[in-house]
Amino acid sequence: MPTTTLNDGWAVRDKVSAFAELGGAKAEWVDVTLPHDALFDRPRSEDAPGGAATGYFPSGAFEYRRELVLSNEDRGKLVVLEFDGVYRDAMVYVNGALAGQHAFGYSRFAVRIDPYLRVGEANEIRVTCRAHQDSRWYTGAGIYRDVHLTVKQLVHLAVSSVQVSTLRIDDEAATVEVKAEVANLSNETATVTVASAIRTEGAGVVAQDRSPVTVLPGATAVLRHRVLVEQPALWDVDSPALHTASLTVMHDDIVVDEEEVAFGIRSLDVDSRRGFRLNGQPLKLRGASVHHDNGPLGAVSVRAAEERRVRLLKEAGFNAIRSSHNPASTALLEACDRIGMLVVDEAFDMWTSNKTDFDYASDFSQWWERDLEALVRKDINHPSVIMYSIGNEIPETGTPAGGVWSRRLAEKLRDLDPARPVTNGINGFVSTLDVVIAGMRQAQAQAQSQASPESAGGVNGMMTSVGAMMNQIAASDVVTERTAESFSVLDVAGLNYGDARYEMDKSLFPHRVILGTESFPAQIAAIWELVTANDHVVGDFTWTGWDYLGESGLGSVVYAEGDEPGALSVAQPFPWLTAWCGDIDITGRRRPASYYREIVFGLRTEPYIAVRRPERNGQTPLATPWAWSDVVGSWNWPDRVGETVAVEVYAAADEVELLLNGSSVGRAEVGAEFAFRADFQVAYAPGQLVAVAYAAGTEVGRTDLVSGADRVELELDADRLELDRARRDLAFIDISVTDGEGVAHNGRDREVTVTVTGGDLVALGSAAPATQEGFFGPSRTTFDGRALAIVSPGDADEIQVLVEADGCEPRRLTLRVATNAADAPHAQATFAS
């Protein structure tokens, strides 16, 4: 039996022990299809133990079960379950016996189950897991990534042992090494023949080799084939060419095992003078830090969702993702391979010091080696993965003990995979917290002794200056000295909010290569100027590229009203849900910050118009360092006629002229108040608002916004017309409240109701950062006039989606279901009959 996906046929319930059941406790089993997030449908509440950090979701302990029947022909074979991720403290039982366990919630792990199976009978597989005060963000819980079942002969290719690497590339050919372990679980010495073949799309077999391998009983033997691939198509972000390597194991002329893996042929280089190079070409990393959840789907990693996310991030101008702050799913990496997105895969958010009460730090010293081994086994064949990160904002990195741990982790990764550089997202502020806390206490005591009601800024004052404070501390002598060892063990020095070090480290550490592993969104213009001006700085990763669940309110904007200063905080109260700091919101729609970044990157010549919400006129905005202006790309404010509104125009130009209904409102200098931005105050009137950008007196681009008509209609736009039943495909359907001509009514939100026949409504949600509405009901209120429905195939060959809202004509959408369906153009909505 080949490796198969084992996502169907599972059931889940709250974990109930046998003793609790004897005492009368009960929990009903609910049928589910994996991947599954067991926490996501639970009610949120203001007294949830994780608070804003976990999005006010509750904690929980869960168990999954499934029956598994193997035929008599599988008797005596190796049987393995491979989990791409279970959050967390997974315990795997087979027929009541513990077969394996794994502490970390993000590692891929394999469990051998054949010793506990009864061949020809029904076997119970049970998996228990939990989530409780163990993270700084929303983790979800359960078997939230794919599960695979592998059945092999006693002589076989060891599970996850096939590795393909490019040893050398020149103008004529590439030397590719195929490596694998041949395992022998039998009681006799076995000599097998292993054949390898490299294939490329459209060209068939381009290289092959074969060799005998003798394996002693109970042992493994390493196979290596080095082959020459002539004139290979190289993998890069613009043309992500993939090859496949297949291995066939024959014993006594009988095929006993086969495996095939995808890989890419490409080279990586990095140094302080020439920066980062892919296939010999310099490349700056335009990076997006991304959490693992998929918004309206919760923490699950589904191929269709990961493909869509990677595609939208790339369309927005990013060429790299940093998995924050845990190993990425296999589904995400496969999407990055196919689409052409670079990945910095991050291992841990904590080492030996807890960041939350019950997190992985308690398991780190026992599990870190196995989890790094799992990281490399998962990543090594993915050309998209260009770098490993051993951590994020680890407090120990400012101590000698942290230097020891840094070296251990970095050297372990180099032993496992010498081809990829190692980084670490170090925050000098966090690395010297003992000094920072002592200084803050002293400053607070001094402020209290001198404070007056008029001058006291409290938390608000501290928050508005935290960005500058982080940078100032990062550039201090104490950080230079105390992080020197932790940085010295890295190939690339990752800096979180430390751009003040970029130029100073060029002289202090002339061989140090720097990567901005985290940065404030509003500072991208200044940061990108540093990145492009310094060869030793290879890129920047904003926090964040995609909005996420938990850390609720990290990017919030609040307002002062009258004498009230406003409650500025990076942790907003319930019902806040998302961080609200992503360039792209949780439904996949680009926010104004995304267009600004695209302009700064030099990828967009057309200006972009954003309008501050008119209902906030006269109020003073207070924003965290992770926030963007509270703006919307809309000129549709029918209730604000005659009122003055603030307009921001983003442009790579010297000045911008604004015209309202053909009349000039005036010209404004770009960058006078904020880089790449011109600011206007305009009396709102319906019609057309045009922004014209000028450089050296010549027009270089223009754009416009138009106000909508009075009528209110629904518009639907699906990302595909045809779904593939075989791969648990999903259709993402954008629902908009518009004027019927494509202009969104961002001020006329409606409760929309979605009915699906022939398929399933997987989720229905909006991008609202604060809401008490869930994602699983048939109805949901739009946010800024928009919502998202996610639909999966059922048993029918056609899916009908009906969307209704008060005061709107119903809309219907038809989706086709096939096997191995190709991507289709956007669907067109039709009026319901």
TrEMBL record:
<dbReference type="InterPro" id="IPR008979">
    <property type="entry name" value="Galactose-bd-like_sf"/>
</dbReference>
<dbReference type="Pfam" id="PF18565">
    <property type="entry name" value="Glyco_hydro2_C5"/>
</dbReference>
<comment type="similarity">
    <text>Belongs to the glycosyl hydrolase 2 family.</text>
</comment>
<dbReference type="InterPro" id="IPR040605">
    <property type="entry name" value="Glyco_hydro2_dom5"/>
</dbReference>
<feature type="domain" description="DUF4982">
    <location>
        <begin position="642"/>
        <end position="700"/>
    </location>
</feature>
<feature type="domain" description="Glycoside hydrolase family 2 catalytic">
    <location>
        <begin position="276"/>
        <end position="440"/>
    </location>
</feature>
<dbReference type="InterPro" id="IPR006103">
    <property type="entry name" value="Glyco_hydro_2_cat"/>
</dbReference>
<dbReference type="InterPro" id="IPR032311">
    <property type="entry name" value="DUF4982"/>
</dbReference>
<dbReference type="InterPro" id="IPR006101">
    <property type="entry name" value="Glyco_hydro_2"/>
</dbReference>
<keyword id="KW-0326">Glycosidase</keyword>
<dbReference type="Pfam" id="PF00703">
    <property type="entry name" value="Glyco_hydro_2"/>
</dbReference>
<dbReference type="InterPro" id="IPR017853">
    <property type="entry name" value="GH"/>
</dbReference>
<dbReference type="Pfam" id="PF02836">
    <property type="entry name" value="Glyco_hydro_2_C"/>
</dbReference>
<feature type="domain" description="Glycoside hydrolase family 2 immunoglobulin-like beta-sandwich">
    <location>
        <begin position="159"/>
        <end position="266"/>
    </location>
</feature>
<dbReference type="GO" id="GO:0016787">
    <property type="term" value="F:hydrolase activity"/>
</dbReference>
<dbReference type="InterPro" id="IPR006102">
    <property type="entry name" value="Ig-like_GH2"/>
</dbReference>
<protein>
    <submittedName>
        <fullName>Glycoside hydrolase family 2 TIM barrel-domain containing protein</fullName>
    </submittedName>
</protein>
<keyword id="KW-0378">Hydrolase</keyword>
<dbReference type="Pfam" id="PF16355">
    <property type="entry name" value="DUF4982"/>
</dbReference>
<dbReference type="InterPro" id="IPR051913">
    <property type="entry name" value="GH2_Domain-Containing"/>
</dbReference>
<feature type="domain" description="Glycoside hydrolase family 2">
    <location>
        <begin position="714"/>
        <end position="813"/>
    </location>
</feature>
<dbReference type="InterPro" id="IPR036156">
    <property type="entry name" value="Beta-gal/glucu_dom_sf"/>
</dbReference>
<dbReference type="InterPro" id="IPR013783">
    <property type="entry name" value="Ig-like_fold"/>
</dbReference>
